[in-house]
Amino acid sequence: MKIELKFFHSRVARRIFLLFVVSALIPVILLALFQFMQMDRQLKEKSHMQLRQDVKNMGMQLIGQLFNLESQINLLGRGLETALAEKKLPAKSGHWAQLAPDFTALTVMNLDTKPVSLKGKLLSLPKKMPALPLHGTWISLSNVPNSGDKQVLLVHKVDFGHFLIGEVQLDWNFDLHPGALIWVLNYDRQVVYTNSPTSVPPQLSQYMANQDTGTFTWSFNDRNYLVGYWHLFLRERLHSGKWLVVLAEPETNIFVQAQKLYLIFLPTILFALILSMLLSQAQIRRILVPLEELSKATRRVARRDFTPMVTVKSNDEFEELAEAFNKMSKRLQHQFKTLSIMSSLDQAILSTQDAEEILHIIFKELDELVDYDLLILGVLERDDEHAMQLMIDSPVYEIPKVQKAFISDSEIEALRNNKNIILNLAEADPPGYLNVLAQYHMQHTLIFPILHRTQPVAIICLGFANAAALKECRTEELADIFYRAAVAFTYAEWEERLYRQAHYDDLTNLPNRLFLRDEMNQALERASLYGKHCVLMFIDLDNFKDINDTLGHAVGDRFLNKVAHRMHNVIGKYGLLARIGGDEFTLLMGDLANKETAKQKATEAAEALLHSFLRSFYLGEVEYHASASVGIVFYPDDCNTSDELFKFADMSMYEAKKMGKNNYVFFSAQLETSIRERNQLMQEMHTALEEEQFIVYFQPKVNSKKGELVGAEALIRWQHPTRGLLFPDLFMPLAEESNLIFSIGEWVVQAACKQLYTWKKQGYKLSTLALNITAKQFTQKDLGNRIQRIIEQTGISPKDLEFEVTESAFIANFDESNLILNQLSWLGCRLSLDDFGTGYSSMHYLHKLHLDTMKIDRIFITSLPDDKKNISIIKAIITLAKNLNLELVAEGVETKAQSELLCELGCAIQQGFYFSKPLPADEFESKFLMKQ
């Protein structure tokens, strides 16, 4: 098989080839690794066994030499014993030396006489010689006199008075591997012989402690050695401890041993690669050829070229895929044709409102989609719903183009109730309005009714000479096409409906904001061109949110509908009434001759509207009341653009709400300035909070009788960067309107608590620090939790705080407000009723509140001591406070006479400018706290 490299240009081909290669090489590589590991294990085992045998052979060779020498010296000793017994003193003679030929020197000595050399140099007894038995031999390693060398000596006990000493030169010619190291050690581990200056491996003693012979590995000079050792047991014949033979051989390199494996596995791997390439090429050819055909066909389909079909003959899934692709291609071709026709219809619908022209387009282009034998388009006449004009077309027959028919009520009902009607004309007669089918020998027919508001306005009938063509017909796609025809009939109405949805309010059927904008722009343009005037009234229902919140949006919507209907009846005649969202309405009056006329019309409309709201609204049997706030602005007197017209009307409406609601306000330049300043102040308050421009001032509370400081009230001031120091009456009402009071109030509590903690830490005494809570703050349900958290964070005692509330602050929502006050009281904080006598002064509420203090308002203090009526009121308040066991504080004391009179009446704790105006923290500290 020839290898074709062109296939490998494909990523799929490369992946398949790689898969084959990996599949072939993995078993070979795994087998090689296994064989390598097995060889390594066997080689190590063999090396250890061979080393043990080598060191043992060396030991046995050494023992053989030593025992041979022992036999020679023993034989010589026996001869000397006989000579000495016969009183024949031995002398140096070759006769004696022949009995021990392997000794280099022999000496006989008596402990009492002079030693006699039998051979070689004269030897002396080694030190530390053990007690030897008669004829016993001892081996020793001794230092050579006057030298650092070692000598091996054998000492033999001839009789009880004579010793034979022999020096030997052992044969160290062992059969060693290249690079092998050997050590021979005596019983006290002195080196008898070595071929290396290197000391014995340090771990030798560790292994010797466990067994007398063995092997281990040792690394020395970047080289691995296999070390074996073997003991020589010399006690029986040489009366010495165990000698030791140590042999270190370089470890065998497994890769050197594995060279034979390479000779086997490399050809195997090469064969596997070639086989993988051949097999993968066959598989790649089998896969890529169909894939290439399918890929080419896919690109053709992307270009909307649906011919030719894909041909794959592989008797597998690729052939099935090709068949499925051909079916998909055919279906796509059909769908594209359908979409093309529908696109043409959509364009025609958007460009014309003639429904019959749309039907003619269908009539022309349907033959590209359906292989019909007869096409009939029937259009019902508008003047006579039972008369129908038929337009007939056929690629086979020469037939009239137009023909008239009549349709009965039952046939109209059948069209109304069916999306399509399929008839087998061999079994059933066609409907009367399609009797023309019988003239052309159609066997099957498919009828599609085109409906407008459930009423048939046209039909499209397809005739087929055989059933096969009918089965190929896709009714769903045809239904989509014919639906376009229905859209064409309803397009005008549909356009009108869309326009109404975009420009009218669904709930009230009044014009919406978009419609108002269009009309307003046109009215302003006419006013500019012709010197006319316009009026915009911005109408907002008062308190409508309460109805939505309490009764639900369903009731709210019904109520809005009623209100809108009445407004339309009352002021609709003045101009364009529109609902722009929620409970907001506008009335636009244009083309007015002058401002006087405009103002007159606006006043009439506003008063008529407000007067109409005096009558109740009824939803079922439930009665509701409504009122409205109206802002009125004129063009071009008050503004220049439609945006300004909206904006200024909205401003005026809010001003009407501020004036008490159920009112109307004309826009003015002063109103614009006031609102602009108000909005600017609002923005500056946000900046002040972020940049900490607010300051806490402190006004003392004094026991006038004793002249002692008993507390203080924390009051906010605003150190404005350009306006200077601002008092709270300038900005706090606005803060309450904007909900900024929540952040400011929390900041005041935190700042005051921090200052109180600082004073307490410095050792100053301040019994209580009073803080004000506004009515708006009581709508903050977690107010108590926030204050508790600040107290815990600043580390002050709750009993040092007193919270002042006015009667109006909690009367509006007494239950929720009382819960917050109870929480503060439970924490240990004191509660004070501020400005008593200026509100409701209800005994019922006083009974329910856990108060500690009552403050007499400044309005009763200002006219003292001359106002007898106020003195009576103050006496009554003091009596009430004593009966309720409340501490009493008089605020607004400005003169000595007022202070003395209040003391006489029984109110000694006082606060006011007579004692001090509110002061910054440092001035308050130096003026009052430091003087305690």
Automatic annotation (TrEMBL):
GO cellular component, one term: membrane
Presence of keyword tRNA-binding: no
Enzyme class: hydrolase
Ranges where the EAL domain occurs: 678-932
Domain GGDEF: 532-669
PROSITE patterns, alphabetized: EAL (PS50883), GGDEF (PS50887), HAMP (PS50885)
Residues passing through the membrane, by range: 16-37, 261-279
Annotated GO MF terms: cyclic-guanylate-specific phosphodiesterase activity
Keywords: c-di-GMP, Membrane, Transmembrane, Transmembrane helix
GO biological process terms on file: signal transduction
Domain HAMP: 285-337
UniProt EC number: 3.1.4.52
Protein name stated in the entry: cyclic-guanylate-specific phosphodiesterase
Organism of provenance: Legionella septentrionalis
